[in-house]
User: What shape does this take?
Amino acid sequence: RWVGPRASRGVTAMNKTHATPERRGKRRRRVRVGAAAILSIISCALGYGYLTREHDGGAGLENGVEGRHERIPREVPSLSRTTTPSTKGRAVDVHDPTVNFGLDFDENADPPNVPPPPLLSTLATTTTTVRRSPPVPKRATVDEDQGKYKFEVLPPPVVDGSVTNMQEVDPSKQDHPKWMRDMWSEKVQAVDKNVIDKELEARLESKPPELDHVQPGEELFVTFGTASVTDFVQNWLESADKLGLSPLFVGALDEDMYEWCRKRGVPSMLLKGNTVLKNRGQQFITAGDKSFKKMGTVKTKFIQDLLELGIAPILTDADVVWLKDPRSYFKRGTYITADALVSTDCIDVPADKRDNNGCSHVNFNTGVLHFRPTDAAKAFVQTWKTKVATSTIAWMRDQPAFNLITHEGVGGHSLEPAVSVPEERRGTEGHRMVYWAANASIRLGVLPNWLFGNGHSYFVQWHHLTHPEDGEPFSVHLTYQYGDTGSYAFGKRERMRQAGIWRSDPREYFEDGNYLVVSDEGSQVDFSGESLGGEEVGSDRNAYRTAIDRHLREDKLRRTTIRNALALARALNRILVLPEARCYCDKIWNNLNACRAPGAESFKLPYACPMDHIYDLPSWFNPGMPDFREPGFLDDPRVPDAIKASIGRVVVDRDGDTRAGKPGWDTNDAKVVKLRHGFTVPDAKLALKSLEEKRVIEVDFLGNEGTFCGFGDDAKNKEFDSIVVRPLSASQYYCFTELWEDQGSPRGGRNGPYEPQVVLRHCGMMENDFKRAGKVHAGVVEHIHKPDGGCSCEWGFGLPRGLAQISKDEGICPRRNSDQPTTS
Assistant: This one.
């Protein structure tokens, strides 16, 4: 069996480790690093629905592709290097004690001459160079972990002020791709000076009563939200409550959010600076909306206020789910030395586990962020807030600004280490690297991407299920997804529903209605006899050929199944429970390595693919669409046992179609209802009359084009076709690095900035031009086997013919002599 999210709902999953893919030479490693660097930018945008696909004329963004950034080697500074320039150019002695696990640090032991955080009026464009000595041990605690973690604290390196920040793009120069220059050229107004002076720079006179439940030195779990993300705030609160996380706080970004929290007794306050979000125009704030940048100023101001009160906030976006309490983990080993801890957009789990700068080229993600109330952290947040508020670059929201500032004083992507650990323990618990960041003014720890999961490591790789030996995640952040709009985050919600971690649905969602189910096995092609590896696809150099072939064949069966199931559910007035979907190729606006996103070459194929990978998900919520439930719905413990026990089963004649598997239940049982091949709605209603009282009807197979011949009414067929055509549509290119390299890496961009136009590079034309030329037939493998090597991409997905057309095709649905409905 393949691994999917049902394992998290109590269904057995495989426990299998996987070999690392074969090495493919220096060029491939450079390709992977650069591609993943671009992916990190894309992931931020995808997480908030920012990027759109433009193909015409090359002016738009065909996102992703291998970049040209090299890994930047870095020397560990010598322990003898004990001086560093101060902000005025004079030397400051730094005495770094050897730190052992179990020490309790006195953060008030900072030297008295450290300057206070600069004000916005004096720090509009600079980065902080404030330094402080490492924390001084206040007292040692003796417990069973004493001496378990071995590391040394390193002094800050000498900062070279002349180095170029690799995070920054000068739009006037030609040394970056056009899409990046365009992104940095887009301008917005800075926050109004009156708001800065009256709200963002207002100092706290006293502790607000809304924060009376948290004491100085205590961690506070914080999220932020407008009323448009109420569902996600509720889910955040429910996940925290389930774990007993406390104290909690919701930073309200508008009056409606504050009122929602107040009525429910949730600690909250209307944050200073929230006036910048009034009259924002768009209900659900996405990264492409101007309000998103303004929202960052409100958040950073509140973080600053918490630090001034001596509170240590654990901050997350509202689309984060807590799965375990992280507080003890944050205090283990090297992490105790950090001023801040942050998550990453890196999807390369093996590289992150090695903890040797394998993910240094990938952006930090502020969706999970922990600050300690040190002077260094306070100065950093002041700089961060200033950058977001005063910059006129549209892209300079809170997360890009965080990445830009942390890389000040760094001549590449890799930050300088702030700790030294034994090589044999590197990357293990308590021995994760902590780095000097922001001109070596702050110690920054980076959280593991498999324990603080992102939208790829958790919902695509399913690393927590395929590698349970690596431990249970503490959290997951809904990045790397494709199903959100300006009206609602459909993609995020459906992924959490599929994984069983969405807790905002009311009781009625699980208890009301009757259901139609199609068996998982009957919706999946049985590939078990086609290769020695069975269903699983490897990561060798030719694996992409097997993967794309299976990916499109399985989708053809699945898409026909779902179309027929939606029609039958509509006719029977039932809610469709979707079968588990398997994908053999990853979805990413990039080239693929072994049909996987660059940096994730070793994860298991097939994987349980989210709906936003294979459908136009927002359209599933259009008026007239039959109601549905996510795959695995009936495994959810919130569904009453009485529903699960009330089940009737149906076997449909497959007319010799042997592609799909057989269900796990006995198809020959006398109680099973049988339907003929080519049945219509009148046939089904007659045959299933005995099952009307069953809460669940499960059908074994609906995947042949001739299995279901419509509603028996041409007008109803046409109406249904018009409703489902968009939800069932999806377009995605799959471009293969291996074949492109075999063809000599044409159009590789070696003579100029690397433009990530994937289809142009792989096929010689922009995607829309390629389609207009009649060279794309979605759902069919047509290019990779051609001897001329003209294109190294394939396309999904093919759309089934409409019921109005099929019902009139006598080769598929022959008319019977009698108009009476019949069964097998």
